[in-house]
């Protein structure tokens, strides 16, 4: 396969067209082959309902919020009412005296527990409305709330800043003494950006794009239940990483990691915000130690929306240059990102990433700065950075297509790259994005979409593409496969199923490799005391990390099983094969034994296969890709934007379970519709107060907002990603939705809105500007 | 502050539970924290999300907006009361078959809202199905499949309860 960036000379147009055609044909064949390949599999690639389904539809599934231990107390946290203040004095005596209150902690009695950056768990300086000041454990949640009202805090109010631009002006209030810039700006350059923008034939799009702060609003809030047994601490935490919570809590509280056990069986959503330990994990542990009782600390909705992360807002100043024929000559993006009061860790928000890699371009410059503000800290939110960056870049590409009078897909294909230009490596699946363009175009009914309406209801279509820098897995990660005495199989791993279907996919992979029915396989996960290390279920990495580990463990287990079976069947292990749980001797039809027969024979010996995810290949770059096409209707009287349909095509390598992938894609697009149109944290900048930290005024999409969403699957194994050829699909489906919708709004009504979300107010304002200009 | 407690009997899933609660105890907290029926989920605590939906005297209601003491003479059905003798209801089965959930946290509320509809009318229109769950948020975005589950359930062998 040719690597696009290596070509220095532009081939003549005709030659290029032919080459393009050949590539499409090759891609088509690969696509077809991959589809056929599934025919060889018994369970991988096939529909399988979620193994935890019966527990979830009956209310039996036990979430962190559902833990009830004997003598359990309930906790609440007192939060700062000021965006920036110093705590001068704190008096908790009245709260402690309230009947039913069992423990009260604050900066007055908890010291030297380090938390964000250089601050403390209970710091004497609070830096946003919602920052933790004190916590109470009581017999009931109502008593805990009563007690909070009895805590008296004397604050020295300090100047604050909540506006991104203002925070960078000289003399602005300082969130941290060192200044409002987070570290050094991250700068990247290749080629010569100014040279790329110069030249008589270069068309330049120079615009600023702004994205909002979005709130995760997982339905299960952050929180945990903590209990001590002697020196041993157990935390049932609503987390995407049981191992990260374990190490962070152990470190903060000065405990050995072996004394801390973290459990997470079912979780009501995370979306990136639950991939680190948060203060409540340590607070619940301290309250439990102080009271001698188990303590449940689940956040209420307001706390959830103030203090446990958000998608950072951004300002992106872009300059995109292209020749008349559409060839990109320059991509320049200067990006400011609102970090909030603290850096909290986890996946970083790489807004610049999509500018650096989505298109072939020799001259690229990006600069990204993080800015501290007196607002709750930002944290990863499903494809952090790329969602924000895609809104800027893919809106700009649409503007460029209009300026050049080119079809937007043609413009994008013209600047196609099969290589990671930043890392100077080929993509493991160089045709991944090309296949997405094909599949999306084929699934979208352009003729229908082009039906124009007149009057106050206008229809239009828009397209956006994306790459995503992750998906191939995040080693190390480990798994065990045990075959029990009755022939049943346990897969044991320290990963998490955060609602993405991990359990089900791992059952399918183990069953496939072992040659047994999926119903024989159970998965144990989400417990640091039961199973080996696995990374956070974040970065779309779970399946691509732990799937190969499970496969490797299953291979080992099957080898051991065949050794035992060979003795029983009086043959060599190499002569054996297994299908549907029946072990057969090749060429000897009558000689067979079930897994159960073999296990009963060797009882009480057990079979234990151990597997690890192999390191990443270092000679190629694993990305995932996608293309979405949206059709919208704009009501020019009300400013309402109605999404009529979305076609989403995504490359996620080999698909293990098509229905679960479809659910992920539909879900991602649904969140994308919210991001595009309605979701926006609103801050009163006179007081630094968030006005909509709830589900009433923070508008997540409802059932009535979601149109038909077609998943145009690209089901091609990515051989470079890992031993299964799988890649994660958790994050990508959200990335291109908002720009596709914004571009469709322009197509419909001729208004270019460069500020997400495209709320009614912004649509009406744009329409008003348009009518004045006419 | 410290409020006197009230004795009451709650009839939940055809079982009478005797308990003593503060008058301000919501039905949601009573179900979850006193009766340990944790299938009913607590999310927004202000009637915005529908995750705590239960059926009270035949109507789908947000249990976070009802006081426990207010429900003493009423017939309450929670998600734990739908399966009979370990057999999933057609609606529960339809949710599994249509892959109508991911994290599953909103699922009990979605199912109870739809169950209340199906109890009223065994063959609702698509519009009626959508209206029934329009007060139930799903952050994973399973709405399209939830609608499909609703349709499947009424095409099935009928409804329970």
Q: How many DSSP helices of chain A?
A: 20
Total helical elements of chain B: 5
Distance between the termini of chain A: 50 Å
Judged by helices, strands and strand pairing, the structural class of chain A is alpha+beta
Largest sheet of chain B: 5 strands, mixed
Q: Helical percent range of chain A?
A: 25-40%
Give the quaternary arrangement of the chains: heterodimer
Helicity of chain B, as a percent range: 25-40%
Total count of strands of chain A = 30
The outline of chain A comes out as globular
Question: Kindly state the mean pLDDT of chain A as a whole number?
Answer: 94
What fraction of the residues of chain A are assigned to beta strands by DSSP? 15-25%
Walkthrough of the structure:
In chain A, 30% of the residues lie in helices and 25% in strands. The two termini of chain A are 50 Å apart. Mean pLDDT of chain A is 94; it is low at 1-12 and 30-36. A 7-stranded mixed β-sheet of chain A has the order 3-5-1-12-9-10-11, sandwiched between helices. With 774 residues, chain A is an alpha+beta fold. In chain A, α15 (502-514) packs parallel to α16 (542-569), α16 (542-569) packs across α17 (595-602) and α18 packs across α19 (737-749). Chain B has 161 residues and is an alpha+beta fold. Helix content of chain B is 31%, strand content 16%. Chain B has helices at 27-34, 90-97, 107-120, 126-132, 143-155; strands at 6-12, 15-21, 53-56, 59-62, 75-77. In chain B, strands 2-1-5-3-4 form a 5-stranded mixed β-sheet, sandwiched between helices. In chain B, α2 packs across α5 (143-155). The longest helix of chain B is centred in the C-terminal third of the chain and has 14 residues, at 107-120. The N and C termini of chain B lie far apart (41 Å).
């Amino acid at each position: 396969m040719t690597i696009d960036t290596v070509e220095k000379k532009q081939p003549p147009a005709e030659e290029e067209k032919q080459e393009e055609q050949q590539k499409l044909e090759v891609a088509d064949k690969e696509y077809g082959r991959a589809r056929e390949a599934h025919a060889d599999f018994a369970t991988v690639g096939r529909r399988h309902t979620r193994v935890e389904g019966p527990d979830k539809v009956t209310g039996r599934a036990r979430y962190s919020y559902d833990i009830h231990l004997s003598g359990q107390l309930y906790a609440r946290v007192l939060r700062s009412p000021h965006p920036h203040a110093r705590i001068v004095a704190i008096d908790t005596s009245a709260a402690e005296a309230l009947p039913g209150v069992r423990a009260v902690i604050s900066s007055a009695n908890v010291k030297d527990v380090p938390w964000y950056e250089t601050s403390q768990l209970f710091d004497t300086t609070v830096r946003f409305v919602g920052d933790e000041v004190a916590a109470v454990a009581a017999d009931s949640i109502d008593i805990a709330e009563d007690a909070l009202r009895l805590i008296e805090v004397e604050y020295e109010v300090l100047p604050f800043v909540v506006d991104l631009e203002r925070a960078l002006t000289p003399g602005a209030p300082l969130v941290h003494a060192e200044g409002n810039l987070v570290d050094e700006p991250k700068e990247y350059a290749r080629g010569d950006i100014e040279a790329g923008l110069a030249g008589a034939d270069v068309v330049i799009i120079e615009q600023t794009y702004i994205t909002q702060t979005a709130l995760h609003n997982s339905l299960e809030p952050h929180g945990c239940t903590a209990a001590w047994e002697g020196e041993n601490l157990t935390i049932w935490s609503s987390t995407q990483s049981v191992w990260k919570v374990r190490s962070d809590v152990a470190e903060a509280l000065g405990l050995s990691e072996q004394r801390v056990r973290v459990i997470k069986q079912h979780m009501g959503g995370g979306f990136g915000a639950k991939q680190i330990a948060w203060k409540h994990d340590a607070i619940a542990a301290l309250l439990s130690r102080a009271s001698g009782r188990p303590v449940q600390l689940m956040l209420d909705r307001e706390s959830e929306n103030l203090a446990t992360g958000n998608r950072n807002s951004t300002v992106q100043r872009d300059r995109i240059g292209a020749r008349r024929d559409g060839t990109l000559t320059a991509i320049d993006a200067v990006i400011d990102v609102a970090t909030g009061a603290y850096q909290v860790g986890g996946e970083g928000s790489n807004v610049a990433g999509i500018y650096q890699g989505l298109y072939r371009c020799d001259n690229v410059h990006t600069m990204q700065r993080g800015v501290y503000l007196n607002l709750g800290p930002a944290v990863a939110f499903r494809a952090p950075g790329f969602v924000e960056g895609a809104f800027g870049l893919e809106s700009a590409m649409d503007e460029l297509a209009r300026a050049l009078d080119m079809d937007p897909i043609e413009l994008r294909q013209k600047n196609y790259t099969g290589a990671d230009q930043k890392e100077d490596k080929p993509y493991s699946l160089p045709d991944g994005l090309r296949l997405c363009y094909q599949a999306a175009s084929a699934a979208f009914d352009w003729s229908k979409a082009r039906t124009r309406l007149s009057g106050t209801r206008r229809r239009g279509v828009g397209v956006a593409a994306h790459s995503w820098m992750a998906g191939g897995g995040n080693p190390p990660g480990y798994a065990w496969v045990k075959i029990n005495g009755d022939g049943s199989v346990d897969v044991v791993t320290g990963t998490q199923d955060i609602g993405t279907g991990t359990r089900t996919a791992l059952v399918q992979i183990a069953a496939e490799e072992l040659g047994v029915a999926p119903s024989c396989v159970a998965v144990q996960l989400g417990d640091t005391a039961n199973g080996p290390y696995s990374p956070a279920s974040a970065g779309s990495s779970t399946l691509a990390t732990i799937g190969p580990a499970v496969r490797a463990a299953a291979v080992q287990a099957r080898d051991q099983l065949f050794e035992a079976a060979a003795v029983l069947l009086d043959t060599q292990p190499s002569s054996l094969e297994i299908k549907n749980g029946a072990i057969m001797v090749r060429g000897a039809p009558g000689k067979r034994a079930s897994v159960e027969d073999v296990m009963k024979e060797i009882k009480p010996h057990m079979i234990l296969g151990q597997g690890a995810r192999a390191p990443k290949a270092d000679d190629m770059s694993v990305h995932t890709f996608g293309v979405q096409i949206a059709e919208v209707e704009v009501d020019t009287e009300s400013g309402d934007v109605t999404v009529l349909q979305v076609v989403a095509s995504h490359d996620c390598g080999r698909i293990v379970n098509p229905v679960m992938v479809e659910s992920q894609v539909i879900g991602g697009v649904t969140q994308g519709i919210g991001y595009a149109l309605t979701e926006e944290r609103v801050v009163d900048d006179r007081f630094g107060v968030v006005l909509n930290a709830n589900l009433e005024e923070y508008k997540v999409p409802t059932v009535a907002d979601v149109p038909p969403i077609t998943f145009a699957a690209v089901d091609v194994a990515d051989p470079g990603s890992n031993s299964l050829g799988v890649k994660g699909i958790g994050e990508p489906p959200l990335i291109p939705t908002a720009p596709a919708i914004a571009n469709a709004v322009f197509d419909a009504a001729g208004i270019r809105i460069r500020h997400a979300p495209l709320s009614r107010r912004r649509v009406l304002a744009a329409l008003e500007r348009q009518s004045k200009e006419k | 502050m410290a409020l006197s407690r009230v004795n009451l009997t709650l009839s939940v899933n055809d079982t009478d539970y005797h308990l003593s609660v503060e008058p301000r105890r919501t039905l949601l907290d009573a179900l979850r924290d006193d009766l340990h029926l944790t299938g009913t989920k607590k999310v927004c605590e202000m009637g915005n999300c529908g995750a705590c939906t239960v059926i009270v005297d035949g109507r789908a209601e947000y249990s976070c907006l009802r006081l426990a003491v207010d429900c003493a003479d009423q017939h309450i059905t929670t998600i734990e009361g739908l399966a009979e003798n370990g057999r999933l209801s057609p609606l529960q089965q339809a949710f599994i078959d249509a892959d109508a959930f991911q994290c599953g946290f909103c699922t009990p509320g979605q199912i109870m809202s739809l169950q209340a509809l199906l109890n009223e009318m065994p063959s609702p229109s698509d519009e009626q199905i959508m209206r029934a769950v329009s007060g139930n948020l799903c952050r994973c975005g399973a709405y399209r499949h939830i609608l499909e589950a609703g349709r499947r359930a009424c095409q099935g062998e009928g409804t329970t309860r």
